[in-house]
Structure formats: C-alpha cells, structure tokens
C-alpha cells in the first residue's frame, strides 16, 4: 500500500510542477518521468487479433451480425446455412483488419525509426552516441546542423554569436520560415566545453507536461541566482536545427511528455447529419424487425395449435416441445432470415462512396492554385455529403486572404528616392510633398518615421553593402519599415540591446531597454529606447481605439482632426495604426524596470503581472500620427459571396477588424448591399443598451406585437431549437466585439441569434478567437442547421474546430488553420466549387444511395414476410441460400456504387448557373425520416407484387411438355429473378447521369447473376457438394419457359408503374428547382452549355473607415534577446513590393471614422483647430482606384 501511496503522491506533484537537476540521473529517476521512447502503434503480433476483433465488434452492426451467426449454429432455430452470414461478416472483418494492420505496421516502422535515431549525450564527462529511446530527463545532449531535436530541451549554448540557434518548426505548425531561439547568457558561457557542461548542476522548476506549443513558464536556479525561462529558450521535439553548427540542450520533457506528442491526441470526431439520422433509423429498423418477428412467432403459435397436429403423424414433436416453445424458436429463426433489413454491406459501401468523393476533391484541377502549387485537399473522408447541406457560413477575414499588389496608373509620376542610397527600388510612392518635408528636416515628420524605424520586430539581413532584406512578422510590419527606409530612416541591424538605424545618411544606434510586445488583448506594441544623446523615450503603435484611451488630455483636439482625416481613408477600406510616444524620467524607469524583472521570473500569473506594468507605463502618450495600408481582395471573393447568398446560405463574418473597416469591406465583397432595406449597427456598451438595440431591430423587421417572443420548439434533452422566420426584405447586421460579449450572455443569446438569423448577412467585428468559437457553438446549439467555418490564421483555429465543417486557406498567416481543418485549398473563390459542386453532388449521391439501398433490401426482406403466411410460419426462406448470400455482395453492389460515385443531376456549369439547386440539401429534402418511410412503403408494395404475381403465375401451372413447374425451387428462382430485374430497373430510374462504367456495372451484374445461377444449379456443383447446391437443374428447366419471362416482365412493370406515375404527376403539377433546371438542360443539349457568369461588382460609393490588426503573437521577446531570423538566399528577395498589402497612404495623425472615444459627433468637421505642419502632407492617389 505504501508503495502505491508514494506513486500517487509523486504523480500529483508531477502534475503540478516539474523538478529536475542537470547531470543527475539518480535524482531525476526518482520522479519516474517518462523516457524518450515513443509508441504510437496500437498492436503487437500477440494482441492484434483479439484487440482488433474487440474494437470491430464494438460497432453495433458487427456485433449484431455476430449475434446472428451464433443463432445460426443452433439447429433448432436456423433455417439458413451458416455461410449466409459468415461470408459477408468475414469479408468485412478481414478488409477492416487488413487496413488496421497496414496502418499499424507503418506506425511500428515509424516508431522504430525515430526511437533508434542517434544523438550525442553527455555521460561521465564524455559525449557518447546513444539511441533516442535511451535519453533521460536531465541529460545534456548535443545537436548538430540539420538534426531533429531529440526531446523538449532548454537551450544551454550554441555555436552562433549571442548563443542563437535557428530552427524550422514545420512538423509542429506547418510553417517553413526559420525561427530563432537564444540561450541565457549564464549558460551560453559554458560553450562546448565538456568539463564545464558536466559540472553544470542547474535546477529547473517548470510547468508540467502540456500541449501548449506557444507558451512555457519556468525558472533556472544556478550558482545562487534564479533566471526566468520562457518559450524563446526552449527547443521543442519535432523541430529541425538549421544554419547552426552545434548546440547543447538540457532535456526537460521526453517521449510521450513532449509537447509534440501531447498534441497528438485524437481530434473531436465529427459526424454528419445523415450519420446521426442513420443511427435513429437503424434503431427504428431493429424495432420494426422485432415487431415483424413477433407477428410471425404469434402466427406460428396459432398455426401449431390449429394445423400442426395434422402433421404429427410424419413429423412428430420432440418431448416438451409445445406451440409456445415452437413460437419462441420461430421468433429467433425469423430474426436470422429478416436480418437483411440492416445489411452489413451498407456500412462498407458508405465508406467507399465517401472515399471516392474525397478523391474527386483532391483531383479537381479547377481547385488547384498553380502559383503556390497548392491543390485542394479533403483532409477527412467522413463529411463530404455535409458539404451539400451548409446553411450557416462563418468566415474570418474574407478579404484578408490576399496575395495581390496595388496597381497604380502608369501615368502617375512616382517619387524619386535617389537621394537615399539605401532605398528599396521596388517601393513606389506618389506624394512629393512628404518627401520634401523629410528633406527640410521637419521635426514632426522625422519623429514619425523614426518611430516606424524603431518600433517593430522586423529582422534585417545585409549580405552585401546596402542590400537589406527584411523578415517581418506580418506584411504590414514589412511595409511600414520599408516605407521608413525609403524616406531616409533606414533600419539597419539590431542586437539584443540596441537598434541601429541610418537617419538621413547618419548612422545612429539606440539602446533598446525594453520591448512591450503585441498580443490579442493589448493590440499594441511599444519599445523603450535611449537615444545617442541619452534621452529616454517610449514609442508605441497600435489600434487607434487602444492608443486613444492612453493619450494625454492635450491631444483631444488633435484626435478630432485625425478622425476627420481618416474619414477620407475609410472609403478605401484601409488598415490603420495610430502612433504615439512619450519621454520617460530616468529614475522612474529604473524603478519600473526592477519591478518588470521581478514579474518576469514568477511562475504563477506571470502574464497578468507583466500586463499591469505595461498598462502603467503606456499612458499619457502624445499622438504622433497614423498609417494606412491597403488590403486588397482576392480574385473572385465578391462573386463567391454572391453565389453563396443566392444558394440561401447565411453568411456571417467574424473578424478582428474594427467596425468601419468590416462594414466597408462588407460592401466591397458584396456581402452588404445598398439595396438592403437596412443594415443594423449594434454597438451598445451595456447589456441593457444591447438588448434594446436588438429588440429595435427585431421590431423593424417584424413590426408585430409578439415580435419579442421566440418561435421555438424543443429537441431532446430540453434543448430549444429556434425555427426560421420569414421577413419582408433583406437586412444586414454589424455588431461590435464589446456588444457581442453581452449578446452572447445566456440571458440574451436567443434574442441575438433570432435577430441575426433573420438577417441576410452578419458581421461581427473586433471579436476574439474565443468569441468566434462561441458564435459557432451558439448557432449549432439552437439551429438545426449545418455550419461551416473558414479561416487562414491561428486565430481561426477554435472556430474551425467548433463548426460542423472546418475549411482552412493556406495563406500568409501560416498553416495552423489548414492543419486543424477538414478541407483546405489556396483561394477563397474555390469555396463555391467545394459547396455548390462537390458538396451538392456528394449529398445527392449519398441520399440516392441510401434511398435505393433501403428500397432493395426492404423489398428483398418483405417477400420473406409474405411467404411466411404460406409456409406455416416455419421460417423457410423464399430464396436460394446462395442468392441470399450474394445478393448484397455481388448482384447489387456494383450498380449502386456506380450510381453513388458517378451520378450527377446537372454538370458543374449548370450548378453555378443555378445556385438555388443547393437549397434542397439545406432542407434535407433528399433523405429524411419522411423520405425513409416513403421508401419503406414503396418496398412494401413492391414486395407484394414480387411475391403474389409469381405465386399466382405458378399456381397449378405446367410446362410446355405437360410437366409440373409449380415446385418450391422453381418458385424461388422466379421470385429472385423478378426481384433482381425490378430493383435494377428502379436503379435505372434513379440514375440521372449514365456513363460507360455505370452501364457496365448494371449489365455486368445481371450477366453475373445468370452466370452464377446456371453454374450453381448445374449437375457438376451438385455432385461436388450436394448439401450446398441442391437446386440442381432448376435454372435450365425454368428459364426456358415463356410464361416465366412474361411473369418477370409483368412484375417489373407493376413495380415501376407507381414510381413513373408519381414522378410524372409531380413534375407536371409541382416541379422542384431540380426538375426545372434538368428540363432546361435537356432542352439546351443541342447548344453548348452556358459559361459561368462573372459579374463585375463595383465598389460602393459609401465611404467607411477601415482598420485591422493581426491576432498573432509578436516577436518581442525574440527581438530583445537578439534572435535574428535567417532565410535561404532565394527567399531574401521578398521585399516590400511583394507583400500582399501595399503602403499607399501615410498620414501624420488619424484614426478610423465612425467612432470617437471623446464622444464627439462622428465625421464632424472640427473648426478652429490649429493644423500642424505634418498634417499638410497627404498622399495623392489615383482616383480610379
């Protein structure tokens, strides 16, 4: 007991905090940390068979058929041979087991390859080559260039200056650009001296194992001093060392405890609405099966009591067998016979169909982006049909997925920067007045560009004299630093403690004292520098609303002027930042820096303590100016939005941009339109204000007395479902992030959702990643509709994972969104093809498959039910046992798969021409409970025809030669032949698009039936195995009679007649959108198909403000610790002119229009305000843009 007690204590301690000591294996082993060996495989040769079978029989279908097999080996119950169930069950189990075995063998190979890699470990003061699996926590290891990082390491020293290392993190986050890490100075002094490293006895206390790739908290105690550890000093397993000769690291987490392996947990399994419906229907089918078996068992009981005694002369009962016991046995016998209502092949076929439709997406050349060599990718195979049912489309910044440059008129004369030898020749600017102000040494203009040259996290590399290459965290950063460079304030280089710039030809070095980095909450960054003259200054740039809250009161008038100026930029949808600064007192700064150091080494709540210090020093700022950068739309964004809107897909944009920018871009991409009845703006600053604005909007859309009452119904477990409402006209909604926070509260969420769902388009601006996920969850919770979320950045991951379907766009913001998505591609415009073509076809095919599959199997099974009333409820089968075995596996498998893989009602061109074809999928019109019961009724009718017509046709019938043909075997053959022809003709009616493959499958399956039938009913097969092939000669004796074929023809006609009649009347009296379009297609076959329209959508004349800011964490800690980024020479050509956003306007001051933190009227002209000299310089832009 004590042993287990100690283990439990140690486990709890390890969960709270990790402790380890360098070069002390005995101490570290006492904590029983995981070794560095990994195991991703599930089986070994001894456990594969039992474990795999156990997993497979956890599926209800497999367990059900195993139960049937057990029943079939009981002679008193089974009237079917064991192979009728064993053959399909073994086939399914074998195929699945082979797939699982192949996957696990590959995992074993991968594990062995990784675990047996070699690395140099410092043992007994010497470097020894050891396998990865033998590395322990607390070991010091040596890595060399291009080696994989063995485990999660604390970087100790490296070959590079300032103890830097360069790593590639592609296996962690998909990003191939190099990142920099830097060791502490105290450990960097150890170098590569084995003796010093062996004597290193530092003690690390840090967080327990977790999956947070972007955060690490810990401390190192060494030589009596405590040092702060963060993520910038850690090398994670899965990274690759680049451009670094060697480095040494201390192992913190090994194997399964490393952050890479902690992130290998299973993702949430997403199921489609059809899957969920299927689960319900299968339960109903089981209930119906039990009901049928009960009726037949009762019938058997009555038959035994009334008729059975007459047969006792030659069929004597066993002792103790009475009518009740016979009925009990009959019940289980019919469970076996009628089991085909839930065929095991259904599940296998569904997976094949989904896999095939996934390949269509991967192979689609029209979704391939050649510029980046990026094809579309279906990262999951289980959600294809759900793509055809999307009702709510939630997007990140739909306009931010851009890769274009601004194209100015060639007749506009550009500024000549020849006075600056370090200028970037690719940078284009058009305001000559601003250049003249720089040359005249205007102090405000110089301060403006000095801030841009100092306040950033850009890394500079200079291979040749004067050839600078900037590597920036975002295109905006690169654009601004490049602009400052061309205007004479050239960022040249940096160290951990300084930033070197060239000011109008003069080299100056600023001491970098602190960098207050950007994050999601702060939405700003600051640097504290000391000039060569010894002056302390804080420079800050960030979101204008954030900066305005921290300005000195003396800036109030200037803020109003700035607001007016940015109104002109607003109509262009530009992204803005406000710039400010303040001078610092030396004594106060020294006190602040000491408190900053103390906060940076605490383990608990470190970030909040640092934020408090940042807030303290970033106040009473002086407004210096603002920047505006254009962010262009990708090709096809407006057309895509328009197409999705026509398909009745509700479009919600969830963006971090400010309200005015989001609204302006909404108009630009045709999300909001001038023709809308009204666009509601919800921007309340309190719950009451938000609620009142929502209710006012509801009243405007539905001016009735009960407009505040929620139309809802309950859906299981008390969950309320908000039903759709029809409004007159089209409306839009724009809601701010702070208002959204109130709207998402439990007391208000239903009102918000109701109002939003009545709008054609919804834009939520200034939202956090968490709020994005909350909005998705809200829609999923209260709307019976399928949601799709799309994004391209790390800030969209939570939203992508929360939605029914997540789509990632591989853009400039990394690969995090793609790695978390279900589908991915390179361009936003490909979304319409994914939904309107692939999604709609996949849904249509799956629904047709399910309807037909249930029809053919119900028809097959119900014939047994009717036959029971004519065989004394004896559980005798109406078909040959081999026909029962091969019906789903051979005779009807390929034709239905051919329809499910190749069928299409109209081609892709017509799908784009008529996006309304998408609507039936949203309404579940093709397959639902109603459609299922229609299918069951149709099957019931067909089974009646298929049993009673052959029964009547063969009753007292003789052959041409006078011999009797009305025997059981001939009747079985006739019935199964009629069945196969009827279901095959029904398949032909279901199919809209015939191909050579489909035709081959249909005709080939019929040919296969006759070939197998004549073979199995031959003399040779009977002589080989008489008990299994008892229908000797039946085929050749029956199928040569004309009346047999007339019966087949009559049953086929009677089976399809109601279907043809119903469809004809339905098309004539109440045609669907599919019927109308297919009629147009047939009428247009003689002429070429119309080309898809590309509507030119002009920008609205309404002027609205624009601003956006990245959600990504900054490189501030990296910069202050001197970690320079490196890239191969080929990538260094990416300068300002190649980024997606182009600096077109630099205003000395400003903010975005439409909101004033001072409470003054928006867009109001401010009179009698002294205009500073810097305000005189504006950019001349081409009006055509």
TrEMBL record:
<dbReference type="InterPro" id="IPR032631">
    <property type="entry name" value="P-type_ATPase_N"/>
</dbReference>
<dbReference type="GO" id="GO:0005548">
    <property type="term" value="F:phospholipid transporter activity"/>
</dbReference>
<feature type="binding site">
    <location>
        <position position="772"/>
    </location>
    <ligand>
        <name>ATP</name>
    </ligand>
</feature>
<feature type="transmembrane region" description="Helical">
    <location>
        <begin position="882"/>
        <end position="902"/>
    </location>
</feature>
<keyword id="KW-0547">Nucleotide-binding</keyword>
<feature type="domain" description="P-type ATPase C-terminal">
    <location>
        <begin position="818"/>
        <end position="1071"/>
    </location>
</feature>
<feature type="binding site">
    <location>
        <position position="575"/>
    </location>
    <ligand>
        <name>ATP</name>
    </ligand>
</feature>
<keyword id="KW-0067">ATP-binding</keyword>
<feature type="binding site">
    <location>
        <position position="795"/>
    </location>
    <ligand>
        <name>ATP</name>
    </ligand>
</feature>
<dbReference type="Pfam" id="PF13246">
    <property type="entry name" value="Cation_ATPase"/>
</dbReference>
<feature type="binding site">
    <location>
        <position position="655"/>
    </location>
    <ligand>
        <name>ATP</name>
    </ligand>
</feature>
<feature type="transmembrane region" description="Helical">
    <location>
        <begin position="971"/>
        <end position="989"/>
    </location>
</feature>
<feature type="domain" description="P-type ATPase N-terminal">
    <location>
        <begin position="22"/>
        <end position="86"/>
    </location>
</feature>
<dbReference type="InterPro" id="IPR036412">
    <property type="entry name" value="HAD-like_sf"/>
</dbReference>
<dbReference type="GO" id="GO:0005524">
    <property type="term" value="F:ATP binding"/>
</dbReference>
<keyword id="KW-0472">Membrane</keyword>
<keyword id="KW-1133">Transmembrane helix</keyword>
<feature type="binding site">
    <location>
        <position position="766"/>
    </location>
    <ligand>
        <name>ATP</name>
    </ligand>
</feature>
<keyword id="KW-0460">Magnesium</keyword>
<feature type="transmembrane region" description="Helical">
    <location>
        <begin position="1044"/>
        <end position="1066"/>
    </location>
</feature>
<feature type="binding site">
    <location>
        <position position="796"/>
    </location>
    <ligand>
        <name>Mg(2+)</name>
    </ligand>
</feature>
<feature type="transmembrane region" description="Helical">
    <location>
        <begin position="996"/>
        <end position="1017"/>
    </location>
</feature>
<dbReference type="GO" id="GO:0007030">
    <property type="term" value="P:Golgi organization"/>
</dbReference>
<feature type="binding site">
    <location>
        <position position="541"/>
    </location>
    <ligand>
        <name>ATP</name>
    </ligand>
</feature>
<keyword id="KW-0813">Transport</keyword>
<dbReference type="GO" id="GO:0140327">
    <property type="term" value="F:flippase activity"/>
</dbReference>
<feature type="transmembrane region" description="Helical">
    <location>
        <begin position="80"/>
        <end position="98"/>
    </location>
</feature>
<dbReference type="InterPro" id="IPR023298">
    <property type="entry name" value="ATPase_P-typ_TM_dom_sf"/>
</dbReference>
<dbReference type="InterPro" id="IPR006539">
    <property type="entry name" value="P-type_ATPase_IV"/>
</dbReference>
<dbReference type="GO" id="GO:0000287">
    <property type="term" value="F:magnesium ion binding"/>
</dbReference>
<dbReference type="Pfam" id="PF16209">
    <property type="entry name" value="PhoLip_ATPase_N"/>
</dbReference>
<dbReference type="GO" id="GO:0005886">
    <property type="term" value="C:plasma membrane"/>
</dbReference>
<dbReference type="GO" id="GO:0045332">
    <property type="term" value="P:phospholipid translocation"/>
</dbReference>
<feature type="transmembrane region" description="Helical">
    <location>
        <begin position="323"/>
        <end position="348"/>
    </location>
</feature>
<dbReference type="Pfam" id="PF16212">
    <property type="entry name" value="PhoLip_ATPase_C"/>
</dbReference>
<feature type="binding site">
    <location>
        <position position="792"/>
    </location>
    <ligand>
        <name>Mg(2+)</name>
    </ligand>
</feature>
<dbReference type="GO" id="GO:0005802">
    <property type="term" value="C:trans-Golgi network"/>
</dbReference>
<feature type="binding site">
    <location>
        <position position="518"/>
    </location>
    <ligand>
        <name>ATP</name>
    </ligand>
</feature>
<dbReference type="GO" id="GO:0016887">
    <property type="term" value="F:ATP hydrolysis activity"/>
</dbReference>
<dbReference type="InterPro" id="IPR032630">
    <property type="entry name" value="P_typ_ATPase_c"/>
</dbReference>
<feature type="binding site">
    <location>
        <position position="796"/>
    </location>
    <ligand>
        <name>ATP</name>
    </ligand>
</feature>
<feature type="binding site">
    <location>
        <position position="477"/>
    </location>
    <ligand>
        <name>ATP</name>
    </ligand>
</feature>
């Amino acid at each position: 007991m004590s042993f287990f007690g100690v283990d439990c204590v140690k486990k709890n301690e390890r969960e709270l905090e990790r402790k380890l000591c360098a070069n002390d294996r005995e101490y570290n082993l006492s904590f029983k940390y995981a070794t560095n060996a990994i195991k991703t495989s599930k089986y070994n040769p001894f456990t594969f068979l039992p474990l795999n079978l156990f997993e497979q029989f956890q599926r209800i279908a497999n367990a059900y058929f195993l139960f049937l097999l057990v029943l079939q080996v009981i002679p008193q119950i089974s009237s079917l041979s064991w192979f009728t169930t064993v053959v399909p069950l073994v086939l399914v189990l074998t195929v699945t087991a082979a797939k699982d075995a192949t996957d696990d063998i590959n995992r074993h190979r991968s594990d062995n390859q990784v675990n047996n890699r070699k690395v140099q470990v410092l043992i007994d003061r010497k470097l020894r080559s050891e396998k990865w699996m033998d590395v322990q926590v607390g070991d010091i290891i040596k890595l060399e260039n291009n080696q994989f990082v063995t485990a999660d390491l604390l970087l100790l020293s490296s070959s590079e200056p300032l103890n830097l290392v360069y790593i590639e993190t592609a296996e962690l986050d998909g990003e191939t650009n190099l990142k920099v890490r830097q060791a502490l100075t105290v450990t960097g002094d150890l170098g590569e001296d084995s003796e010093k490293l062996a004597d290193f006895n530092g003690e690390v206390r840090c967080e327990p194992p977790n999956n947070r790739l972007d955060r690490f908290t810990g401390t190192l105690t060494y030589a009596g001093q405590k040092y702060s550890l963060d993520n910038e000093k850690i090398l994670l397993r899965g990274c690759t060392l680049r451009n670094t000769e060697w480095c040494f690291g201390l192992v913190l987490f090994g194997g399964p405890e490393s952050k890479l392996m902690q992130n290998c947990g299973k993702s949430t399994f997403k199921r489609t609405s059809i899957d969920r419906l299927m689960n319900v229907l299968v339960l109903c089918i089981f209930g119906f099966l039990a009901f049928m078996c009960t009726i037949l068992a009762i019938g058997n009981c009555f038959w035994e009591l009334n008729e059975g005694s007459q047969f006792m002369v030659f069929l004597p009962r066993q002792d103790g067998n009475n009518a009740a016991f016979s009925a009990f046995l009959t019940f289980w016998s019919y469970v076996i016979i009628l089991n085909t209502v839930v065929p095991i092949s259904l599940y296998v076929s569904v997976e094949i169909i989904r896999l095939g439709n996934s390949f269509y997406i991967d192979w689609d050349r029209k979704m391939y982006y050649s510029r980046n060599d990026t094809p579309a990718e279906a990262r999951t195979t289980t959600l294809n049909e759900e793509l055809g049912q999307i009702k709510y489309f939630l997007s990140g910044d739909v306009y931010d997925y851009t890769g274009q440059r601004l194209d100015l008129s060639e007749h506009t004369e550009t500024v000549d920067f020849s006075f600056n030898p370090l200028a970037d020749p690719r940078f284009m600017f058009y305001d000559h007045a601003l250049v003249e102000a720089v040359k005249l040494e205007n102090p405000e203009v110089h301060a403006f560009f000095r801030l841009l040259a100092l306040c950033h996290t850009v890394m500079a590399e200079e291979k040749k004299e004067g050839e600078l290459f900037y590597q920036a965290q975002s295109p905006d950063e690169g654009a601004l630093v490049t602009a400052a460079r061309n205007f004479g304030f050239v960022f040249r280089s940096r160290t951990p403690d300084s930033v070197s710039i060239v000011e109008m030809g003069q080299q100056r070095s600023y001491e970098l004292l602190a960098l207050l980095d950007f994050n999601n909450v702060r939405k700003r960054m600051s640097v504290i520098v000391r000039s060569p003259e010894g002056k302390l200054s804080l420079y800050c740039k960030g979101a204008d609303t954030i900066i305005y809250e921290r300005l000195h009161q003396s800036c109030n008038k200037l803020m109003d002027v700035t607001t007016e100026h940015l109104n002109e930029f607003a109509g262009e949808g530009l992204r803005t930042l406000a710039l400010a600064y303040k001078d610092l007192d030396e004594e106060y700064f020294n006190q602040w820096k000491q408190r900053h150091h103390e906060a940076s080494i605490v383990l608990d709540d470190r970030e909040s303590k640092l934020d408090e210090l940042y807030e303290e020093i970033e106040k009473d700022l002086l407004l210096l100016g603002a920047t505006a950068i254009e962010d262009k739309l990708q090709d096809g964004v407006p057309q895509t939005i328009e197409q999705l809107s026509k398909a009745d897909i509700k479009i919600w944009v969830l963006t971090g941009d400010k309200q005015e920018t989001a609204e302006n871009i909404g108009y630009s991409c045709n999300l909001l339109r001038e023709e809308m009845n009204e666009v509601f703006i919800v921007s309340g600053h309190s719950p009451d204000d938000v609620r009142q604005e929502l209710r006012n909007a509801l009243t405007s859309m539905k001016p009735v007395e009960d407009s505040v009452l929620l139309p809802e119904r309950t859906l299981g477990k008390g969950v309320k479902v908000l039903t759709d409402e029809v409004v007159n006209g089209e409306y839009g909604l724009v809601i701010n992030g702070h208002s959204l926070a109130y709207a998402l509260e439990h007391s208000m969420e239903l009102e918000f959702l109701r109002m939003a769902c009545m709008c054609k388009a919804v834009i939520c601006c200034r939202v956090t990643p968490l709020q994005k996920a909350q909005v998705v969850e809200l829609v999923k919770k209260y709307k019976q509709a399928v949601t799709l979320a799309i994004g391209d950045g790390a800030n969209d991951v939570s939203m992508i994972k929360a939605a029914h379907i997540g789509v990632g766009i591989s853009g400039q913001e990394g690969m995090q969104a793609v790695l978390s998505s279900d589908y991915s591609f390179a361009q936003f415009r490909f979304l319409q093809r994914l939904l309107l073509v692939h999604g709609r076809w996949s849904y249509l095919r799956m629904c047709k498959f399910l309807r037909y599959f249930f029809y053919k199997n119900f028809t097959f099974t119900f014939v047994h039910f009717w036959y029971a009333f004519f065989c004394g409820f004896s559980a005798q089968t109406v078909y040959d046992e081999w026909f029962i075995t091969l019906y789903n596996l051979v005779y009807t498998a390929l034709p239905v798969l051919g329809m499910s893989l190749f069928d299409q009602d109209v081609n892709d061109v017509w799908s784009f021409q008529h996006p309304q074809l998408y609507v039936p999928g949203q309404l579940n019109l093709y397959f639902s409970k109603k459609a299922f019961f229609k299918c069951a009724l149709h099957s019931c009718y067909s089974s009646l025809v298929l049993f009673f017509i052959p029964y009547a046709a063969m009753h007292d019938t003789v052959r041409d030669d006078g011999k009797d043909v009305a025997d059981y075997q001939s009747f079985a053959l006739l019935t199964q032949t009629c069945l196969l022809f009827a279901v095959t003709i029904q398949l032909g009616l279901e199919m809209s698009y015939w191909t050579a493959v489909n035709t081959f499958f249909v005709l080939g399956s019929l040919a296969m039936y006759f070939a197998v039938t004549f073979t199995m009913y031959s003399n040779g097969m009977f002589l080989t195995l008489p008990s299994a092939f008892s229908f000797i000669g039946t085929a050749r004796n029956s199928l040569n009679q004309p009346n047999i074929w007339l019966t087949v023809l009559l049953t086929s006609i009677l089976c399809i007649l109601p279907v043809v009649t119903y469809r004809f009347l339905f098309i004539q009296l109440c045609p669907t959108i599919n019927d109308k379009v297919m009629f147009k297609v047939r009428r247009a076959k003689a002429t070429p198909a119309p080309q898809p329209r590309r509507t030119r959508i002009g920008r609205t004349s309404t002027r609205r403000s624009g601003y956006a800011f990245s959600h990504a964490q900054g490189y501030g800690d990296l910069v202050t610790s001197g970690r320079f980024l490196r890239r191969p020479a080929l990538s260094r050509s990416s300068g300002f002119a190649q980024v997606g956003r182009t600096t077109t306007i630099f205003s000395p001051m400003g903010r975005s229009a439409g909101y004033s933190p001072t409470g003054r009227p928006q867009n109001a002209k401010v009179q009698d305000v002294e205009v500073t000299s810097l305000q005189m310089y504006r950019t001349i832009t081409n009006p055509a843009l």
